[in-house]
Amino acid sequence: MIKRFNTILLIGIFGGLLSHSSPPVSPLTPMVIWDSLLHIEQAQGLSQQQKLALVLPLRVAFEKGGYVRDSVYARLLHRIAVFEYYTTKAYDSCIANNLEAIRINTSGRAGACLSFAAGSYRNMGYYYKGLSIYDQALSYFDSAIQLANRFPGEVAVVKTCRQERSNIYSIKGDYEKCIEEATLGILLGQDTHDTAYSIILLYQRALAETKDGDISAAVNDIELDRQLAFFTHDTAALGNSLAIKAFIDGSISHTQDALEEYRAVFRLLSGRPASIMQADYYLDQGNLLLEKMNRLDEAEASYQRAYELALQIRDPIEAASACIDLNAVHHNKRNFRQAILDLHQALQQLHIPPSKDILLNPSFKALAAQQNKQLLVMTFANKTDDLLEFYKTTREPAMLAACVHTALLADSLITTLRQEQTDEPSKLAWRTSTREFYSNALAASWLAHDANTAFFFMEKSRAVLLNDKLNELGASAFLPPDELARQQQLQLGLIQQERHLADLPDSSPDYGREERAFLQAKDSLERYTRSLEQTAPAYYQYKYADAVPSLQALQRLLAVGGRYFVHYFVSDSVIYLLGITSSGTQMIRMPYQNLGREMNSFLRLCADRQAENVDFPAFSRLAHHLYTVLLAPLGWTGGRVFVSPDNFFIPFEALAADSLGSHFLINDFSFDYVYSARYLLQPSRALPDEAAFLGVAPAFFEARLEVPDLPLSVDACREAAACYPSADVLTERRATKKEFLQVAGRYSVVTVYAHARSDSVQREPLLFLADSVIRLSELPLLQRPAAQLVVLSACQTNAGRNAEGEGIYSLARGFAAAGIPAVAATLWQADEQSIYAITAAFHKRLAAGMDKDQALRESKLEFIRVGDRSHSLPYYWANMILVGNPQPLVLAKRRRFHWWWVAGPAVVALVLAGFWFWRKARTPASPPIKKAGTRPA
Does the model's pTM come out above 0.70? Predict the structure, then answer.
């Protein structure tokens, strides 16, 4: 009764204000306005519309009274924006009122309330999220967190902002950032003992982990989430966690279990108001029915139900998602026209007017403002596939031209999506998911006999994240010294914090604290990098340069050395070869399966001396077979070849021109491996060096590293150093991790004689030094190195896990990402004496000015020629390959500072000075000259 009485009293008080009669005789004071506003806020019996109607006259009264616009007025504006948001969705007015409230409360003047501004910043995030302007929303939520953290009473603001940021990153497809924000939220929920909040964030993190492919982490999170939901009797949370379990079961092909779980979810949520989560679950169920069970009609019904729910709750993004999923059903039913119309309907839901002509697309400019690039990429990647299949059935040239045009548009959207994502894991996830798109784009280029476009898509399909890293290094040149130092300090702090976290088991009591510190260090670096957009626009412009070199630019480079270039693209069932010479191109498409398995078998045989020797005929047949697939179709019989492989590295030198293995390709070709033509054409960097050569040979390793000693490495290191006019060596106890990272960037050539460890799973490649290991993630600490070449005379330095579209994440790639233009690296466990002999011969030729690829080939041929017959096996000589720029070394003519350069002249000067004093002592003294005005002492 009391609450109802208060509501009636409020309506009575403000009835006069709402009427069109004359205003009250005496104006309302700020205190009365404040009290009235608080009563309206707390009145539970009023609707949002009624509250808005009551607050608007208070604003009029405040303005007519001529009062100072302080925190009272700011709160009025803040509440008006809130009530407008819930009633009229007048976003322009909401944003304008809220911005004015923020301006007042952050002004620092008397009467301002800075703590309340945190909530206003949060609401700005809500408004921009409602407009699907996600970058602005993320920025405002972040500002709210930074401000709210200064006031202990505003922890609720931090919680909601973490939740919303996690959700937005999920919408954008940046699952790694979604996981990070959810993790910070979960830690905050633990700190504040907020179980309900932790349930929400655990759900969001589990969903992101599932979509990111980390199933084991998702299983752990969702199990904890279910336990908490059961403990708190939260039916909705139980339904949500069960839906994630269904999603996980579907992803691991437990399809029937997943289908039953989805049905249980719908039973749990029956009778509840329509929500975006319900629509999501129908979409997920449809994906299970379509992709895993091939039950097309049932999938279509599930997607249609999601579409109806999305329209009911007025969620355009959810409706567009349902249209894109319906497109997949109609594509599988080979109703390509309807499939394309589904995509046009998705654009309509996103407020992008589509053309009535299914062959036409909106301009990139019209799409660039749309925040949800994830949906746009899916839309136009799917349309590329639809048009390609439609062309195959109709053979209409206009259909193929539209397909190529759509593929180019989709690629531009993929580029912008990648630039919006901050974490490499999220970018890698998108590299994997767009793999099929690039296969379709190449198919369209091949059908159109368009070598230029095929070259473009080949380049855009690989090593783009490596190119981003190199762009970032180049962009650093545009930073002032203090900004560059700040950036490097933050990068160093992040790497060190990552190492602390990696060294702790998940069960450690300190894990949560270290995880929070790591995420905060990461956030600091990202926030600083974003700030450079305003303070150093040239840095940002260079960092995000994404131009692909022209085919003609590559051909001009090939003409200089009479070289060839071959691009590969390998899909599940097709191989594309794009052979390029200075005067022409040829594109070959061959249906083929299991190439990856055959190359792995070949690499295993290369690395196994005994197997290669015992069953040489089998090895020879496979070496010849791969030659007939990978190189023979191009018709090249010899020469210097750049190889741009696709997710593989094998030694082409060890392929055989005949099935008997009597003629390996090393006799006719020199091979240089490049990540892409864009990587090869990177402009050279003329950075100053300290000396020509640095050799690093630990020889003896600490016992805890559990690797054998390499006593022969010191002599090998000194032999290589003797080839150069100026050289240093770090051997035995001097060859430490700290010393290497400090000095390695100062030399033209760096050679490491040590152990390395890598595999094809998730473990990070390691380079062993005397006291510790250098991890792949630590190589960026070599800031702007002068090295033109790094030679890794260690085991498996070009091995690692394969990242789809990016290649092998190896130590060699890590040095390339640090800005070193060429790396000589190994593919398998090295034979110590052989690798040292080849490395020594390699350095002699490099120091003499030979091209790197030619120097390595000649060194291998010399090893084969002077060695015994057993050394003719590729196991001994094919291990090391060159990756990167093959041009000769440019060694500085100046020499390092040596003590005798100063000591020698100093000794001469002392001798001359002594002679002068001796002569002076023997010369008779002249009488003194008396000057005018002087007095005796």
Answer: yes
